[in-house]
Amino acid sequence: EFSILFSGVKIGKGAEINSSIIMPGAVIEEGAKVLYSIVAENAHIGKGAVVGGRPEDYPDRDQWGVAVIGPGVTVSDKAVVAPKAMISQDI
């Protein structure tokens, strides 16, 4: 929903992508949530992981921002990446 997915992106069953940009070759596993985020080329978001968050869930807007997952980064199953985070190595 309200997202841009480039060619070669793989999305698992039940994954939620909202207001995000998913670059070529990225993989979003089953049940993962990617919200208000940029996921770079060949990044891998594990099963049940949550990346980013909705701005309306943060009354203090200084705590909110777009989450960024760098190229080739793997986010482990069920990991949580907070809004405004910039991840450049596997977690």
Radius of gyration: 12 Å
Counting helices, strands and paired strands, the structural category is mainly beta
Mean pLDDT: 97
Choose one word for the global shape. globular
List low-confidence stretches: none
What level of helicity do the residues show? under 10%
N-to-C series of helices and strands: EEEEEEEEEEEEE
Q: What is the makeup of the main sheet?
A: 5 strands, parallel
What's the number of extended β-strand segments?
Answer: 13
- Helix tally equals 0
Distance between the termini: 26 Å
Order of adjacent strands in the largest pleated sheet: 1-4-7-10-13
How much of the sequence lies in strands comes to: 25-35%
What does this molecule look like?
The strands form three sheets. A five-stranded parallel beta sheet has the order 1-4-7-10-13, with no helix packed on it. The radius of gyration is 12 Å and the shape is globular. By secondary structure, it is mainly beta. It is built from no helices and 13 strands.
